[in-house]
């Protein structure tokens, strides 16, 4: 009798991807479903008027003050236009568009094109507001702020530092080495200079056991990110929580650290899911577009899978990778610089100075040291992936079936259809 199969919809690019897997051997782990807010603009405005901590936004800003807004680049599904419009509406009568500078917190990513900015913010805001892509490598655009945290030299975007009012905007989700996204990350690494980012992401910090999903206190990366943001000053912070359709579920505003702590506890309840065992095969994604545009970004989905894969098991990551590895930056070069993942880790640990994109390579090398990683992708060949210690999976269902047959009748598969939007962990019973 043929094994019964179930269809599983994977977040992949803009269209999604359906795979059929054996029903009695497959565990699907997805975020707790939360319906989108019925009136998103009202929810956003309420977060600004009734903050978690600190005064309402209208009491923070005075007429004529210059306001800088930090927001995520295109690799994040932040509802930027809605959030910026909420800020403009809440400050009506106090500030005008001319008072604002929107800073795209690229970190070390490339700047967004005009077309991408229009996708992110809409034509009207792009045509009527001052928008600047942060450039971590442009020394003239940076300002020295001093040393913060555990010896981190801090340069920040000059437009941000020189503004009268600094407002971070973002969304909060578990992060594979910083604990959670959003909040203080919109200052550093988002608006930081290259040397600052490389220090925050050096081998010692990334290599810490506490530099992982959903850990903030005692996480050397997040501890220093938090120290920089609070030490250099943020006047108001504004974050949202998204559901698996990337729609706004809730919004929070106010004093940076208290707001972020409140928001991440909500996210923890929605996205952290216990599982009873480790799995022979874990199928994951990177949450579809815009998060699965490159292998660099897809490392997050692989890392989520690594939390519940058996040592020596198989991870299959479905990520469209329309931006390649990407072609810019040094990620591919560093990843291909050593013949094995183990030698990569050794080489990275031996370096006195971090190089760009090393941290993502270090995290991926740790995953590769635990499991084999194949990718289902539209834009990269097997030969290209092999240079990065990965391999192409053309048919996910067939690859899963082959691995289950190889391991035996007790083999099991886990699926993370939303990738890093859901972080599985071993339950107490399993431990």
| Strand segment count | 20
Query: What structural category do the secondary elements indicate?
Result: alpha/beta
Any guess at the CATH architecture of the largest domain?
A: 3-Layer(aba) Sandwich
Total domains: 2
**Radius of gyration, rounded?**
21 Å
Q: Trace the largest sheet across and list its strands.
A: 3-19-15-16-17-18
Largest sheet: 6 strands, parallel
Roughly what is the average pLDDT, rounded to an integer? 93
Shape: globular
- Regions with pLDDT < 50 over 5+ consecutive residues? none
Could you please say which CATH topology of the largest domain applies here? Rossmann fold
Beta-strand content estimate: 15-25%
Q: Report the top-level CATH class of the largest domain.
A: Alpha Beta
Helix content: 25-40%
> What is the distance, rounded to the nearest whole angstrom, between the alpha carbons of the first and last residues?
35 Å
Number of helices: 16
CATH superfamily of the largest domain: LarA, N-terminal domain
GO molecular function, one term: lactate racemase activity
InterPro entries: LarA-like, LarA-like_C, LarA-like_N, LarA_C, Ni_dep_LarA
Protein name: Nickel-dependent lactate racemase
């Amino acid at each position: 009798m043929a094994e019964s199969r179930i269809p599983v919809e994977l977040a992949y690019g803009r269209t999604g991807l359906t795979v059929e897997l054996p029903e009695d051997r497959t565990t699907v782990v997805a975020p707790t479903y939360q319906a989108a807010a019925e009136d998103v603009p009202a929810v956003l405005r309420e977060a600004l008027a009734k903050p978690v901590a600190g005064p309402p936004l209208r009491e923070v800003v005075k007429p004529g003050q210059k306001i800088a807004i930090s927001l995520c680049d295109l690799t994040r599904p932040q509802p930027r236009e809605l959030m910026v419009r909420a800020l403009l509406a809440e400050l009506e009568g106090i500030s005008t568009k001319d008072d604002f500078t929107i800073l795209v917190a690229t970190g070390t990513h490339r700047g967004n094109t005009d077309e991408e900015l229009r996708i992110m913010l809409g034509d009207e805001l792009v045509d009527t507001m001052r928008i600047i892509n942060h450039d971590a490598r442009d020394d003239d655009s940076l300002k020295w702020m001093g040393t913060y945290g555990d010896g981190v030299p801090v340069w920040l975007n000059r437009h941000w530092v020189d503004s009268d009012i600094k407002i971070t905007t973002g969304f909060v989700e578990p992060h594979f080495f910083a604990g959670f996204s959003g909040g203080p990350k919109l200052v550093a690494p988002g608006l930081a200079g290259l040397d600052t980012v490389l220090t925050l992401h050096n081998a010692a910090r990334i290599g810490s056991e506490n530099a992982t999903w959903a850990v903030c206190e005692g996480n050397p990366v997040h501890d220093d990110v938090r120290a920089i943001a609070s030490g250099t000053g943020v006047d108001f912070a504004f974050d949202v929580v998204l559901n698996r359709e990337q729609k706004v579920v809730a919004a929070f505003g106010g004093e940076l650290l208290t707001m972020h702590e409140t928001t991440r506890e909500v996210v923890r309840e929605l996205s952290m899911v216990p599982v009873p065992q480790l799995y022979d095969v874990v199928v994951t994604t990177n949450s579809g577009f815009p998060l699965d545009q490159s292998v660099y970004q897809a490392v997050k989905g692989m890392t989520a899978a690594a939390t519940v894969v058996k040592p020596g098991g198989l991870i299959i990551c479905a990520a469209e990778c329309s931006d390649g590895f990407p072609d810019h930056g040094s990620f591919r070069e560093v990843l291909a610089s050593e013949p094995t993942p183990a030698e990569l880790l050794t080489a990275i640990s031996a370096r006195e100075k971090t190089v760009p994109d090393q941290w993502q390579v270090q995290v991926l090398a740790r995953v590769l040291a635990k499991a084999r990683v194949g990718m289902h992708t539209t834009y990269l060949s097997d030969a290209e992936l092999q240079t990065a210690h990965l391999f192409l999976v053309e048919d996910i269902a067939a690859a899963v079936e082959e691995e289950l047959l190889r391991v035996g009748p007790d083999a099991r598969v886990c699926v993370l259809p939303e990738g890093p939007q859901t972080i599985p962990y071993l339950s107490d019973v399993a431990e």
